[in-house]
Amino acid sequence: MVSKVLADKLEKVRKGLDGKLKTNAKAGVGGGKSIDYLDLPGVLDTLPPVLSEYGLLMRLGLSFDSQSGYNVASVTVQDTDTGEEYSTSMAFSPDVSPRDAGSTITYYHRYLSLSLVSQRADKDNDAENVPKPAATGGRRTLPTRR
What we know:
3 helices, three-stranded antiparallel beta sheet, 146 residues
């Protein structure tokens, strides 16, 4: 459980990030509309300085849980005034290639870092061009048998 002091600081960081996180465009799946996403270097260029303004430090971690046999990526925020820490983590299988492990670690660190300050890592634009269903006036329409 996070203290009110730390929760308030994280909320100030969230507000302080408004407009500072810059996304990159990536082509959508199957030629769909692009997806705007924030990569880990973008997170690490922006988030730590804003955390620092409020007396917070961020650490990225990687460990191995011998009980489950899984790797664990983590992000910890520490309040430099009180010493309080708050961490979040995600586990992943060690049965992946080094390249896939690197991608997974980067992905998890990006999403975990942003989740601590209630920020999204991407905006999926693929669904914007999907036609909306016709209004039925609140009634369900069922197919008819022929």
